[in-house]
Design brief:
The chain has twelve helices and nine strands. The chain has 287 residues and is an alpha/beta fold. An eight-stranded mixed beta barrel has the order 1-2-4-5-6-7-8-9, surrounded by four helices. The structure holds ligand C2E and magnesium ion (3 copies).
Protein backbone atom coordinates (compact mmCIF):
# COMPACT_ATOMS: atom_id res chain seq x y z
CA UNK A 1 0.00 0.00 0.00
CA UNK A 2 2.72 2.38 1.04
CA UNK A 3 4.70 1.43 -2.00
CA UNK A 4 1.76 2.22 -4.21
CA UNK A 5 1.24 5.69 -2.75
CA UNK A 6 4.92 6.35 -3.10
CA UNK A 7 4.86 5.33 -6.68
CA UNK A 8 1.79 7.41 -7.43
CA UNK A 9 3.20 10.54 -5.89
CA UNK A 10 6.44 9.89 -7.70
CA UNK A 11 4.71 9.68 -11.05
CA UNK A 12 2.65 12.75 -10.18
CA UNK A 13 5.89 14.50 -9.38
CA UNK A 14 7.48 13.51 -12.66
CA UNK A 15 4.31 14.46 -14.54
CA UNK A 16 4.48 17.91 -12.96
CA UNK A 17 8.18 18.17 -13.73
CA UNK A 18 7.54 17.09 -17.29
CA UNK A 19 4.85 19.66 -17.72
CA UNK A 20 7.11 22.42 -16.49
CA UNK A 21 10.01 21.19 -18.59
CA UNK A 22 7.73 21.06 -21.64
CA UNK A 23 6.47 24.57 -20.99
CA UNK A 24 9.99 25.85 -20.68
CA UNK A 25 11.08 24.03 -23.77
CA UNK A 26 8.22 25.44 -25.83
CA UNK A 27 8.85 28.94 -24.45
CA UNK A 28 12.48 28.57 -25.44
CA UNK A 29 11.45 27.51 -28.95
CA UNK A 30 9.02 30.39 -29.26
CA UNK A 31 11.68 32.82 -28.09
CA UNK A 32 14.14 31.51 -30.67
CA UNK A 33 11.57 31.96 -33.44
CA UNK A 34 10.68 35.41 -32.12
CA UNK A 35 14.33 36.41 -32.24
CA UNK A 36 14.65 35.15 -35.83
CA UNK A 37 11.60 37.16 -36.82
CA UNK A 38 12.41 40.19 -34.68
CA UNK A 39 9.06 39.96 -32.94
CA UNK A 40 10.13 42.35 -30.21
CA UNK A 41 9.53 46.03 -29.64
CA UNK A 42 11.42 48.51 -27.57
CA UNK A 43 9.55 50.91 -25.32
CA UNK A 44 11.12 54.02 -23.84
CA UNK A 45 10.58 55.41 -20.37
CA UNK A 46 11.74 58.97 -19.69
CA UNK A 47 14.37 59.79 -17.11
CA UNK A 48 13.46 63.24 -15.88
CA UNK A 49 15.70 66.05 -14.62
CA UNK A 50 14.12 66.90 -11.28
CA UNK A 51 15.29 70.51 -11.42
CA UNK A 52 14.07 71.49 -14.89
CA UNK A 53 11.40 68.83 -15.38
CA UNK A 54 12.90 68.04 -18.76
CA UNK A 55 13.44 64.62 -20.26
CA UNK A 56 17.15 63.93 -19.88
CA UNK A 57 17.07 60.51 -21.41
CA UNK A 58 15.25 57.22 -21.61
CA UNK A 59 15.54 53.64 -20.55
CA UNK A 60 14.91 51.13 -23.34
CA UNK A 61 12.71 48.24 -22.19
CA UNK A 62 11.96 45.24 -24.38
CA UNK A 63 8.52 43.71 -24.99
CA UNK A 64 7.73 40.54 -26.88
CA UNK A 65 4.96 40.73 -29.48
CA UNK A 66 3.33 37.34 -29.75
CA UNK A 67 1.86 36.30 -33.14
CA UNK A 68 -1.63 36.68 -31.62
CA UNK A 69 -0.85 40.34 -30.89
CA UNK A 70 -0.37 40.04 -27.14
CA UNK A 71 2.50 41.94 -25.58
CA UNK A 72 4.57 39.89 -23.16
CA UNK A 73 6.41 41.81 -20.41
CA UNK A 74 10.13 41.05 -19.92
CA UNK A 75 9.58 39.55 -16.48
CA UNK A 76 7.81 36.63 -18.20
CA UNK A 77 10.57 35.69 -20.63
CA UNK A 78 13.89 37.29 -19.61
CA UNK A 79 14.57 34.52 -17.02
CA UNK A 80 14.28 31.84 -19.75
CA UNK A 81 16.30 34.01 -22.14
CA UNK A 82 18.97 34.23 -19.43
CA UNK A 83 19.05 30.48 -18.81
CA UNK A 84 19.31 29.64 -22.49
CA UNK A 85 21.73 32.40 -23.42
CA UNK A 86 19.20 33.90 -25.87
CA UNK A 87 19.38 37.06 -23.79
CA UNK A 88 22.75 37.87 -25.38
CA UNK A 89 21.51 38.39 -28.97
CA UNK A 90 18.28 39.88 -27.58
CA UNK A 91 20.09 42.55 -25.56
CA UNK A 92 22.27 43.41 -28.55
CA UNK A 93 19.20 43.77 -30.75
CA UNK A 94 17.60 46.09 -28.17
CA UNK A 95 20.83 48.10 -28.06
CA UNK A 96 20.92 48.41 -31.84
CA UNK A 97 17.31 49.58 -31.93
CA UNK A 98 17.80 52.07 -29.12
CA UNK A 99 21.03 53.43 -30.57
CA UNK A 100 19.45 53.90 -34.01
CA UNK A 101 16.48 55.62 -32.40
CA UNK A 102 18.76 57.93 -30.43
CA UNK A 103 20.47 58.92 -33.70
CA UNK A 104 17.11 59.77 -35.31
CA UNK A 105 16.13 61.84 -32.27
CA UNK A 106 19.53 63.49 -32.29
CA UNK A 107 19.04 64.48 -35.93
CA UNK A 108 15.71 65.95 -34.91
CA UNK A 109 17.49 68.27 -32.56
CA UNK A 110 17.50 66.56 -29.19
CA UNK A 111 21.27 66.49 -28.95
CA UNK A 112 21.69 65.82 -25.24
CA UNK A 113 19.52 62.78 -25.44
CA UNK A 114 20.75 59.74 -23.53
CA UNK A 115 19.45 56.22 -23.84
CA UNK A 116 20.24 53.31 -21.57
CA UNK A 117 19.75 49.61 -22.18
CA UNK A 118 19.68 46.69 -19.77
CA UNK A 119 22.46 44.12 -19.99
CA UNK A 120 22.34 40.61 -18.65
CA UNK A 121 25.41 39.38 -16.74
CA UNK A 122 25.57 36.67 -19.41
CA UNK A 123 27.51 39.12 -21.59
CA UNK A 124 30.42 39.14 -19.21
CA UNK A 125 31.14 35.51 -19.99
CA UNK A 126 30.87 35.73 -23.78
CA UNK A 127 33.93 37.87 -24.25
CA UNK A 128 33.13 40.09 -27.23
CA UNK A 129 30.57 42.51 -25.80
CA UNK A 130 32.89 45.50 -26.01
CA UNK A 131 33.61 44.93 -29.71
CA UNK A 132 29.89 44.47 -30.40
CA UNK A 133 29.00 47.70 -28.62
CA UNK A 134 31.74 49.61 -30.40
CA UNK A 135 30.51 48.24 -33.72
CA UNK A 136 26.88 49.21 -33.00
CA UNK A 137 27.87 52.76 -32.05
CA UNK A 138 30.17 53.25 -35.03
CA UNK A 139 27.73 51.92 -37.58
CA UNK A 140 24.91 54.09 -36.22
CA UNK A 141 27.11 57.12 -35.62
CA UNK A 142 26.12 57.78 -32.02
CA UNK A 143 28.63 59.37 -29.64
CA UNK A 144 29.34 56.73 -26.95
CA UNK A 145 28.48 59.18 -24.16
CA UNK A 146 24.85 59.06 -25.30
CA UNK A 147 24.62 55.34 -24.52
CA UNK A 148 24.30 53.88 -21.04
CA UNK A 149 24.29 50.26 -19.93
CA UNK A 150 22.27 49.17 -16.89
CA UNK A 151 23.58 46.22 -14.92
CA UNK A 152 22.31 44.87 -11.61
CA UNK A 153 24.63 44.48 -8.68
CA UNK A 154 23.47 40.93 -7.95
CA UNK A 155 24.42 39.84 -11.45
CA UNK A 156 27.76 41.62 -11.28
CA UNK A 157 28.72 39.81 -8.11
CA UNK A 158 28.42 36.46 -9.90
CA UNK A 159 31.41 37.21 -12.09
CA UNK A 160 33.11 40.16 -10.55
CA UNK A 161 36.47 40.06 -12.30
CA UNK A 162 35.01 39.66 -15.79
CA UNK A 163 32.47 42.40 -15.02
CA UNK A 164 35.14 44.84 -13.85
CA UNK A 165 37.15 44.12 -16.98
CA UNK A 166 34.28 44.50 -19.47
CA UNK A 167 32.74 47.55 -17.79
CA UNK A 168 36.12 49.27 -17.58
CA UNK A 169 36.59 48.82 -21.30
CA UNK A 170 33.04 50.02 -22.06
CA UNK A 171 33.61 53.01 -19.85
CA UNK A 172 36.87 53.62 -21.70
CA UNK A 173 34.86 53.96 -24.90
CA UNK A 174 32.82 56.67 -23.18
CA UNK A 175 29.71 54.55 -22.55
CA UNK A 176 28.01 55.31 -19.23
CA UNK A 177 27.49 52.55 -16.66
CA UNK A 178 24.41 52.52 -14.45
CA UNK A 179 23.98 50.22 -11.46
CA UNK A 180 20.35 49.05 -11.62
CA UNK A 181 18.09 48.11 -8.70
CA UNK A 182 20.71 49.52 -6.37
CA UNK A 183 20.32 48.67 -2.70
CA UNK A 184 18.73 45.26 -3.22
CA UNK A 185 21.93 43.24 -3.53
CA UNK A 186 24.95 42.88 -1.34
CA UNK A 187 26.73 46.08 -2.17
CA UNK A 188 29.98 46.86 -0.57
CA UNK A 189 31.96 50.05 -0.81
CA UNK A 190 34.99 48.00 -1.81
CA UNK A 191 33.49 46.81 -5.06
CA UNK A 192 31.75 50.10 -5.80
CA UNK A 193 35.11 51.78 -5.97
CA UNK A 194 36.50 49.07 -8.24
CA UNK A 195 33.75 49.48 -10.83
CA UNK A 196 33.68 52.32 -13.37
CA UNK A 197 30.14 53.36 -12.42
CA UNK A 198 28.54 56.67 -13.37
CA UNK A 199 25.05 56.28 -11.93
CA UNK A 200 23.24 54.51 -9.12
CA UNK A 201 19.57 53.70 -9.70
CA UNK A 202 17.69 53.62 -6.41
CA UNK A 203 15.52 50.50 -6.53
CA UNK A 204 11.78 51.00 -6.81
CA UNK A 205 11.11 49.12 -3.57
CA UNK A 206 12.80 51.89 -1.56
CA UNK A 207 11.17 54.70 -3.50
CA UNK A 208 7.79 53.05 -2.92
CA UNK A 209 8.52 53.10 0.80
CA UNK A 210 9.45 56.80 1.04
CA UNK A 211 7.27 58.34 3.76
CA UNK A 212 9.02 61.64 4.42
CA UNK A 213 9.96 60.34 7.86
CA UNK A 214 12.18 57.47 8.92
CA UNK A 215 10.92 54.46 7.02
CA UNK A 216 13.41 52.04 5.50
CA UNK A 217 12.82 53.74 2.14
CA UNK A 218 13.72 57.18 3.52
CA UNK A 219 16.83 55.88 5.23
CA UNK A 220 18.07 53.90 2.23
CA UNK A 221 17.28 56.65 -0.30
CA UNK A 222 19.11 59.25 1.82
CA UNK A 223 21.99 56.82 2.31
CA UNK A 224 22.35 56.16 -1.42
CA UNK A 225 22.20 59.87 -2.22
CA UNK A 226 24.95 60.74 0.24
CA UNK A 227 27.05 57.77 -0.88
CA UNK A 228 26.69 58.92 -4.49
CA UNK A 229 27.63 62.48 -3.56
CA UNK A 230 30.75 61.21 -1.81
CA UNK A 231 31.77 58.99 -4.71
CA UNK A 232 30.93 61.62 -7.34
CA UNK A 233 28.18 59.52 -8.91
CA UNK A 234 24.85 60.60 -10.27
CA UNK A 235 21.53 59.07 -9.20
CA UNK A 236 18.25 58.06 -10.85
CA UNK A 237 15.34 57.16 -8.57
CA UNK A 238 13.26 54.34 -10.07
CA UNK A 239 9.52 53.79 -9.79
CA UNK A 240 8.54 57.32 -8.80
CA UNK A 241 4.76 57.49 -8.62
CA UNK A 242 3.89 60.42 -6.34
CA UNK A 243 4.79 64.10 -5.88
CA UNK A 244 5.53 63.30 -2.26
CA UNK A 245 8.38 61.05 -3.41
CA UNK A 246 9.58 63.77 -5.79
CA UNK A 247 9.62 66.36 -3.00
CA UNK A 248 11.59 64.05 -0.72
CA UNK A 249 14.06 63.12 -3.46
CA UNK A 250 14.60 66.74 -4.49
CA UNK A 251 15.06 67.79 -0.87
CA UNK A 252 17.88 65.26 -0.61
CA UNK A 253 19.56 66.27 -3.84
CA UNK A 254 18.42 63.51 -6.20
CA UNK A 255 19.03 64.79 -9.74
CA UNK A 256 16.95 62.37 -11.85
CA UNK A 257 13.83 60.25 -11.56
CA UNK A 258 11.94 57.73 -13.60
CA UNK A 259 8.45 56.39 -12.96
CA UNK A 260 4.77 56.25 -13.78
CA UNK A 261 4.26 59.75 -12.30
CA UNK A 262 6.00 61.07 -15.41
CA UNK A 263 5.23 58.32 -17.88
CA UNK A 264 5.00 54.59 -18.41
CA UNK A 265 7.41 53.10 -20.97
CA UNK A 266 6.09 54.19 -24.41
CA UNK A 267 6.43 53.14 -28.06
CA UNK A 268 8.96 55.42 -29.79
CA UNK A 269 6.34 57.55 -31.61
CA UNK A 270 4.57 58.41 -28.38
CA UNK A 271 7.82 58.95 -26.57
CA UNK A 272 8.88 61.46 -29.21
CA UNK A 273 5.69 63.49 -28.68
CA UNK A 274 6.37 63.47 -24.97
CA UNK A 275 9.82 64.98 -25.11
CA UNK A 276 8.77 67.49 -27.74
CA UNK A 277 6.41 68.95 -25.16
CA UNK A 278 9.42 70.14 -23.14
CA UNK A 279 8.98 69.89 -19.39
CA UNK A 280 6.90 66.90 -18.41
CA UNK A 281 6.68 67.74 -14.76
CA UNK A 282 3.12 67.03 -13.70
CA UNK A 283 1.47 70.34 -12.87
CA UNK A 284 -1.10 68.75 -10.58
CA UNK A 285 -0.52 69.06 -6.85
CA UNK A 286 -0.94 65.37 -6.17
CA UNK A 287 0.51 63.91 -2.97
P1 LIG B 1 14.42 47.45 -14.67
O1 LIG B 1 15.60 47.56 -15.56
O2 LIG B 1 14.62 47.75 -13.24
O3 LIG B 1 13.30 48.38 -15.34
C1 LIG B 1 12.35 49.10 -14.63
C2 LIG B 1 11.03 48.38 -14.60
O4 LIG B 1 10.14 49.07 -13.71
C3 LIG B 1 10.29 48.35 -15.95
O5 LIG B 1 9.53 47.15 -16.01
C4 LIG B 1 9.36 49.56 -15.82
O6 LIG B 1 8.23 49.48 -16.67
C5 LIG B 1 8.96 49.46 -14.38
N1 LIG B 1 8.54 50.75 -13.82
C6 LIG B 1 9.01 51.98 -14.15
N2 LIG B 1 8.40 52.96 -13.43
C7 LIG B 1 7.52 52.32 -12.61
C8 LIG B 1 6.59 52.79 -11.62
O7 LIG B 1 6.45 53.99 -11.35
N3 LIG B 1 5.86 51.84 -10.98
C9 LIG B 1 5.97 50.50 -11.25
N4 LIG B 1 5.20 49.64 -10.59
N5 LIG B 1 6.86 50.02 -12.18
C10 LIG B 1 7.61 50.92 -12.85
P2 LIG B 1 9.57 46.19 -17.26
O8 LIG B 1 9.64 46.96 -18.54
O9 LIG B 1 8.48 45.18 -17.09
O10 LIG B 1 10.98 45.46 -17.09
C11 LIG B 1 11.23 44.62 -16.00
C12 LIG B 1 12.69 44.20 -15.96
O11 LIG B 1 13.01 43.37 -17.09
C13 LIG B 1 13.66 45.35 -16.03
O12 LIG B 1 13.81 45.95 -14.76
C14 LIG B 1 14.92 44.65 -16.50
O13 LIG B 1 15.58 44.04 -15.41
C15 LIG B 1 14.36 43.58 -17.41
N6 LIG B 1 14.49 44.02 -18.80
C16 LIG B 1 13.69 44.84 -19.54
N7 LIG B 1 14.16 45.00 -20.78
C17 LIG B 1 15.31 44.28 -20.86
C18 LIG B 1 16.28 44.02 -21.90
O14 LIG B 1 16.21 44.54 -23.04
N8 LIG B 1 17.32 43.20 -21.57
C19 LIG B 1 17.46 42.62 -20.32
N9 LIG B 1 18.51 41.82 -20.10
N10 LIG B 1 16.57 42.84 -19.35
C20 LIG B 1 15.52 43.64 -19.60
MG1 LIG C 1 16.97 48.93 -15.92
MG1 LIG D 1 15.75 48.91 -12.23
MG1 LIG E 1 13.94 46.73 -11.26
Amino acid sequence: QAKRTGRNSFSMFTADLNERAMKRLSLEGELRTALDHRNFVVHYQPQVDLVTGEVAGAEALVRWMRPDGTMVPPGDFIPVAEETGLVVPLDLWVMEEAVRRAVVWREEGVSAFKVSVNLSARHFATGNLVEKVEDILTRAGLPPSQLGVEVTETLLMQNMQAAVDVLTRLSGLGVRVLLDDFGTGYSSLAYLSRLPIDTLKIDRSFVLDISGGDSEGDVVARGILSLAANLGLTVVAEGVETMKQVDFLKAHGCPYAQGYLFSKPLPHMEFRKLFQRGSIFPSTKET
